[in-house]
Amino acid sequence: MGFVRMPALSASAPGKAILFGEHAVVYGQPAIAVPVTEVVAKAIITPAPAAPAGSIHITAPQTNLDANIADLPASDPIAAAVRGTIAGLKIPAPPAFKLRVTSTIPVAGGLGSGAAVSVAIIRAVSSFLGHPLPDAQVSALAFEVEKLHHGTPSGIDNTVITYNQAVFYIKDKPIQTIRIASPFDLVIADTGRSTPTKETVADVRRLWESDPELYDAVFESIGKFSTAARAAIEQGNHEALGSLMNENHQLLQKLAVSSPDLDKLVLAAREVGALGAKLSGGGRGGNIIALAAAGRAQQIRSALEAAGAAGVIITKVHS
Ligand code: PMV
What we know:
Layout: E1 9-20, E2 31-47, E3 56-60, E4 65-68, H1 77-89, E5 97-103, H2 113-128, H3 135-149, H4 156-163, E6 167-169, E7 176-177, E8 184-190, H5 197-210, H6 212-235, H7 238-254, H8 260-271, E9 276-280, E10 287-292, H9 297-306, E11 311-317
Parallel strand pairs: 3-5
Antiparallel strand pairs: 1-2, 2-5, 2-6, 3-4, 6-7, 8-10, 8-11, 9-10
Bound molecules: (3R)-3-hydroxy-3-methyl-5-(phosphonooxy)pentanoic acid.
């Protein structure tokens, strides 16, 4: 009797950019996010038939992880994604395997690296165990892991990354996809500084607690920008979309989640003719996004590099 040699199996998930509504989305306001397929997280599973059932070895070079799952704490997000998937499938002693996680998505940069890693792992592990999960369950399991990254996630990251489509997202509501009337280029520039989303979300909560009336009004205004932006995207009105991005950035400054680095990149993009620019994601570091008129993305990229961006990605947003 010989072993059946099972092949390696892999799954991947894109990064994401929030176009409108970060932070306000945590308080129930709508937000818009799009997948960014130029960066990707990947989970590769190799069976380990010689190891005892239930044994799982995990390596993730980007975060220097190289350990048996049994030695990882409940708070470890990669282990949590694996454990959550196995528990969800109610498989008591899964066959032994090795999991390797790689990602080209900058960590803590506002591009959804944590959620993308979770989604890739959940897909790979559930497929390996013979029960590939539907998107709704993949997203729900990834959401549980997001709670480890910060206590009160809105769910926007796991949703846009699982469904790999532009979404108009309201917390705890069914997913709404957005029809892109006319594709557009986004230039995404990294400050090179990373701030965990947990910190900025907690700081915004403290601000809100200091003056709920004022900050509820700010969140509501941001929500209105998201709604107006959805209409602009569905009408192909890129000028209106750009102006709304500028207005959203101003309110993010009011929430104290921008930074001199972010503001500098936003201004550099606008100076070279971007239709609009704003920080994207948790803020305080991480990335800005700039909306480029047709044929102008490379010029904006150069300006952002000259202004000190640590990395620039150009992505086309389309249906
Ligand atoms: O920094 P990111 O990519 O995790 O984006 C966070 C978006 C927030 O609205 C700040 C938090 C959330 O859970 O929606």
